[in-house]
Every structure is written in C-alpha cells, then in structure tokens.
Amino acid sequence: MDTVFLHKLLALLFSPIALILLLLLIGLLRHSASCIVAGFIVLWVAATPLVGSSFWRFLERDFQHVTLDKVVRADAIVVLSGTLSFSSSRGRLIQEWGDPDRFFGGIDLVKANKAPYLVFRGGKLPWSSYPPEGVIFRARAINSGVHPTSIIVTGDLANTAQEAKANC
User: Fold this and answer.
1) Which end of the chain has less neighbouring CB within 10 Å, N or C?
2) Where are the beta strands (DSSP E) in 21-165?
3) What does pTM read for this prediction?
4) Residue 155 falls in which region: left (phi positive, over 0), alpha (psi -120 to 50) or beta
C-alpha cells in the first residue's frame, strides 16, 4: 500500500470523527441509546469554538511568531504544501486558501533576504486532478516580486515526509 494512502488513512482512523462514528455505529448495532447520545455529545463538544480554539492553542504553544529581524539567514525557505484546495464553479477552477500564512511568510522571508531560495512542493496527491501547488505558488511568487531564479519547485512529492527527504 502506498505510504501516502496509509498516512491519510491512519490520520482518519484516529480522528475525532472516527470516534464519533464508532460510538454511533455501536449504538445502532447494540440498540444502545447511551452510545448514540455519547457520540452526539462528543460531536457537539468537539465542534464548539471554545474546544477548537483551546486545542489549537495547545498544539501551537511552543511555536510563536517572530518578527523578520529575529529570523536567522538560511540556505532556503521551504513552504510546505497543503495550503490550497480546489473546487469548480460553472466549469471554472476555483483556488481556495486554507493556510495562506505559509505562502506569504515565505515570500516575506525571501524579500527580507533571509534566504536566497524559496522552495515549493511541485507534486500532488495521487488522486488529485488539480494543478500542483508548487506550480501555482511559483507564478504567484513571481507576481509578488520574487525573482524567478530564486524559486525552486520540487518534483512529484505527495506528503511532508517525502518533502523532508527530497534533495532539491
């Protein structure tokens, strides 16, 4: 089995929605109202902004934003993928930003001379029919004033583990 599919499947199996669905399924199969109610309670609690915000604060507690002047110079700025999603409307491809901070942070760092190169992932998920993010980001970076020779787009990479091992 391809590791990309395995990583995606494992993340799904150990997610809150998997616990909710498991509780609901057990409740339906065993005719257990308490399991069904527990599933809906977990769904409701997990979906509240208070829980979601608290969870993100917990996850990001060790990672604080720093100003550009405090960033040390590096060999390259790597912008990880997973920022764009795509949909279509009336036959037109629509790009939607999920986490624009990655892209714009990379642009800001290169423009501040914190590295000579800006690296984008060029590949895409095996089941995706949309253009690779790296190709789109390269064009947007050039439009934002980054010199084309400063931009590297990697080959066909499907996840962060492959990105980390890539030899640009």
Assistant:
1) N
2) 77-79, 84-89, 92-97, 118-120, 151-153
3) 0.67
4) beta
Closest CA to 4 of 123, 153, 97, 167: 123
Question: Which residues, other chains included, contact 106 with Cβ-Cβ below 8 Å and sequence gap of 6+?
Answer: 77, 78, 79, 118, 141
Name the nearest CA neighbour of 76 among 154, 162, 132: 154
Residue boundaries of the structural domains of the chain: 3-59, 68-165
SS3 41: helix
H or E stretch covering 8:
helix 3-13
CA distances from residue 97 to 35, 43, 75, 85, 102 in whole angstroms, order as listed = 37, 26, 27, 7, 10
User: Which pair of structure tokens corresponds to residue 97?
Assistant: 């930003």
CA 58 to chain centre: 18
Cα–Cα dist 85/117, whole Å: 25
Q: What is the pLDDT of residues 27-60, one digit of tens each?
A: 999 999 998 998 889 888 888 899 888 988 898 8
DSSP letter (8 states) at residue 116: S
